[in-house]
């Protein structure tokens, strides 16, 4: 049985796929260094809090 194309079954599927591919990356994807620093600082704060409490 031959494979059916999505664009044949759903005419707007190709347009939707194109729009999803065209989307720009979000801020976090464009600035991974900032996210890394935030994650490190958050982990350090959690460790400091755990040391203070127990």
Task: Offer a quick outline of the entry.
With about 55 residues, the protein is mainly α. It has helices at about 5-10, 15-20, 25-30, 30-54.
- The helix/strand order is HHHH
DSSP strand count: 0
- What general form does the structure show? elongated
The major beta sheet can be summarized as: none
Class derived from helix and strand content: mainly alpha
Structural commentary:
- The chain has 54 residues and is mainly α.
- It has a domain at 26-54.
- It has helices at 6-9, 13-22, 27-30, 32-53.
- The model has no long low-confidence stretch (mean pLDDT 79).
List keywords for this structure.
54 residues; mainly alpha; elongated
Topology of this structure?
Layout: H1 6-9, H2 13-22, H3 27-30, H4 32-53
């Amino acid at each position: 049985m031959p494979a059916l194309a999505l664009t044949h079954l759903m005419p707007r599927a190709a347009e939707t796929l194109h729009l999803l591919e065209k989307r720009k990356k979000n801020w976090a994807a464009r600035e991974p260094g900032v996210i890394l620093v935030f994650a490190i600082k958050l982990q350090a704060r959690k460790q400091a809090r755990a040391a203070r409490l127990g």
